[in-house]
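Appendix B. Worked example

We walk through a single record from start to finish. Start with the input: the chain for 3-methyl-2-oxobutanoate hydroxymethyltransferase, Chitinophaga caeni, length 154.
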Amino acid sequence: MIKYFLPAIITLLLTFSPSLKAQQTTADSIKAVINQLFKGMKEKDSTLVSACFSSGAIMQTVASRKDGMNVVRSGSVREFLIAVAADHPEVYDERIRFDGIHIDGDLASVWTPYEFYIGERFWHCGANSFQLARLNGLWKIIYLVDSRHPGPCR
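Next comes the structure step. The output line below is what the pipeline stores for this chain.
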């Protein structure tokens, strides 16, 4: 019986393997952009960070004020680049994990919970939500929103 189904199974595997490999390669390309962003932050390299963003990219943060009210703060990539390149004695180290990558053609959405350290000191944690677009063959961040809280981290 198996000898009748084996050719069909092999054909199916060979048919779908290239698309799975292409999807994985695309996910790896997207991860590389996000990893480059955090490498640039850690190394105070605003040029490396800048290359990750599209022109007109939007950055926002969801945070709690001291009175407990939640707010959405908007910032600019330019302000972020200035902060990255600023002379600060300790390393900004955002430790992320990839929890989900969704891809539809030239659009991708990525969820990365994180813990942020200044030097070896824990500062805050939260999650990043990245929206990326493939522009001229390169993945670029078009929108980044994050949450921030003192913990506990998930």
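Two observations about the output. The radius of gyration is 20 Å. Residues 2-147 form a domain with the Nuclear Transport Factor 2; Chain: A, fold (CATH 3.10.450.50).
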